[in-house]
């Protein structure tokens, strides 16, 4: 059963366009569509670390870009 309304998904890190896991969101029936970029009102630091390049956001409001 497919939803009748579009579902919007916000992603960051490796799911973003051009990143290694972006193809996970690609749908073979062509229903995937990039809508636009987003930002938080308050900046938070995004860290990409470990040998697996796992992204995470630190709970330090005002310290990001």
What does this structure look like?
This protein has 65 residues and is mainly β. Helix content is 0%, strand content 12%. It has a two-stranded antiparallel ribbon.
Task: Classify the beta-strand content into a percent band.
Answer: 5-15%
Note the total helix count.
0
* Radius of gyration, taken over Cα atoms and rounded to an integer in Å: 15 Å
Please give the largest β-sheet. Answer: 2 strands, antiparallel
Order of helices and strands: EE
Poorly predicted spans: none
Estimate the mean pLDDT confidence: 81
N→C terminal distance: 40 Å
In the sheet with the most strands, the strands line up as 1-2
Shape: flat
Structural class, by secondary structure, is: mainly beta
Q: What is the number of strand segments? A: 2
Helix content: under 10%
GO molecular function: gamma-glutamylaminecyclotransferase activity
Pfam families: GGACT
Family: Belongs to the gamma-glutamylcyclotransferase family.
Protein name: Gamma-glutamylcyclotransferase family protein
